[in-house]
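Lecture 7, part B: from sequences to assemblies.

Below are the input chains for today's worked example.
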Amino acid sequence: MLSNAGFFSNAIVQVGLYLTVLLLITKPMGIWIYKVMHGESAIANKVGGPIERLIYRGLGVKPEQEMHWKHYAVALMLFNIIGIAFVYLLQRLQFSLPLNPQQFANVSVDSAFNTAVSFVTNTNWQGYAGESTMSYLTQMLALTVQNFLSAATGLAVVIALIRGFARHSAKTIGNFWVDITRSTLYILLPLSFILAIFLMGQGVIQNFDAYKQVTTLQPTSYSITDAAGELATQTTSTQTLAMGPVASQEAIKMLGTNGGGFFNANSAHPFENPTPLSNLLQMLAIFLIPAGLCFTFGLMVGDKRQGWAVFSAMAMVFVVMVGVVVWAEQAGNPALANSGANQSFIDQSSIASPSGMELQSGGNMEGKETRFGIVASSLFATVTTAASCGAVNAMHDSFTPIGGMVPMWLMQLGEVIFGGVGSGLYTMLIYAVLAVFIAGLMIGRTPEYLGKKIEIFDMKMTAIIILATPLLVLIGTAVAVSVASGTVGIANPGAHGFSEILYALSSTANNNGSAFAGLSANTPFYNTLLAIAMFVGRFGIILAVLAIAGSMAAKKRIPVSLGTMPTHGPLFVTLLIGAVILVGALTYIPALALGPIVEQLLMTAVN
Amino acid sequence: MENSLKNITLQSLRPALGLFVILSIITGIVYPLLTTALGQSFMPAQANGSLITQGDKVIGSSLIGQNFTEAKYFWGRPSATGPYPNNAAASSGSNQGPLNPALAEAVKNRVAALKAADSDNTLPIPIDLVTASASGLDPEISPAAANYQVSRVVKARELTVETVQKLIAENTKGRQWGVFGEPRVNVLQLNIALDKLTVIQP
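Predicted structure of the full complex, as structure tokens:
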């Protein structure tokens, strides 16, 4: 089936078109970010200027007064801790608050805490099921708000870091209040509004109605265990459709690389992602700002090639990863073939009749939606984990072992393949520092990046950033598999159960939020462990990045000499990819061998 | 710098709180309400869930799959929602791993159910007809999965193959823009069309 030319041509066209559109929107997006963050956009100044000035005046903020990195960090931490407190409180009080037509109870202490940390850290890990837990008010005023503010925080940090590289002999790295206001008002808000309208056009719902009960065509009989522990048969002839203000949350969920679904099934739910076109828009929305930021970076350091070099490194790794997932998922699952299902890909070119009656995507369709099939599901899974989005349009837990390993590994690489809004580029730039450091060691020269000498303090911070998340992931996994409250959550037997835990820690420590969702993680143990992973994985890294930003800003710029390694060419791109892959492979292959790798071997043995 | 860290924190409290409140109102109240107003004014059908009505009764949403097990209806994707399949207030996939014996068992049982309902059918059984969808609410099946069920529905309804195939074709969507996603058949709409047909030709 994999020799099928029709399959490959469609896969290449779908992925190719996606990348082409992404490439086309990268530059305009990058220019827009540059302009609004520097207050140079005429439209933004005209429309938003008065509002912006009103906000600053009301709060006593002097926009032209920039901050030292420590000041910037304090402001950022305060702002985000207020966010955690507010999201927590709203969930704990939602029963007594308006816009709760289903009368959902207050969320439990541990779940509310986990969710608060999760949404503020841009992780959007969800231990709860949206449509049976959260009131509309909580969805909007707690979760949607943090979708904006956590992404704005990421944007602020990356802009501050780039300022550090672009400036010299400076004490400050920008004004946090201004950065966060502009990110929200001029980048995230208008884009979300436009995307929400497109999504509604495709069928994403947006209302405040109570859940709608409809009468189904055919009654459904099902068995439940009654109070006495006996199996009882029940019949229902209705279906209750969950409602809510979904489109507005869906738009920022993608654009802000948040990923927290309104519904439990996330972007697999037809009300969140009804068509292949809405799916394409959502995937583009995930990469739009992270890709655009590469261009913004080039503009800010005064050499666009620097931005494109980083972009190329990201794009190359991405294409390979997509290829592997598509291949693995289309190859299917021998266990299902043995059960009597046909997993062949059948398209117009492989059938005689012109009616198209025999068409099917084939492949491993467990946990996938028909409208997306293999290619759009695999592409989505790769995009969402390359970025720190974590939205899913297919259930990663049911992917083939290799198909599920790639998303896991992409998260473990630190989500630097475009990555999260801001967080992708700032982590990738730290990898660039690491790459020039390694190169400097090899050729025996002082490493420098963008005219800045890389010194001991910078390397200490870099080491913290590179090592913090692996420590969280590996130690966290070790703890969870060693205690009963950890292993009790496992849904699948064998190596896959280990993968579920490893995935959960990789996802939370790297602020992704997707899951091998069989794991029952809504327990005090996991809610606490994963909240710690999310908090440290987010703010531990942000603080170190801001420290580097401050250190870089303070340095003198050294002129380019013969000894300077250029960081805009293929050699540097190769080095950068090498640094990312090497760290990722050395750190995680032993753990991966215990999960997906052994499972893949077992699966091939089944055949 | 160090000794003024406390001062910085105190100074930052007012802008932090104030900005949080202002941005929360803009992004958490104004933005969703504005989006709702737009959706309800210009695309109410979509914004309210693409509902299908018969007379004054709402019988479903074209985007949300329903559970079908009777021979006369086309069956949709298996659904892993609880406590009953296609529960649209509790979307969920099965989350069974590829080597979970329960998955192979479930697929085997679904294959057996299809064969039991139409024992003469020798067509290969399409994978999407025997695997649980991601949402548990997938409204669609592949054309092959519809084609597989034609003979059963034809027998149960005493219709001609051509009539049923024509209805399938009417409820089939190709790849969007010819490229994106996969071809698919909307099961609920197809079954509604079948019911209408049977009413006219009793």
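Note for the exam: DSSP finds 18 helices and four strands in chain A. Keep this in mind when comparing with the next example.
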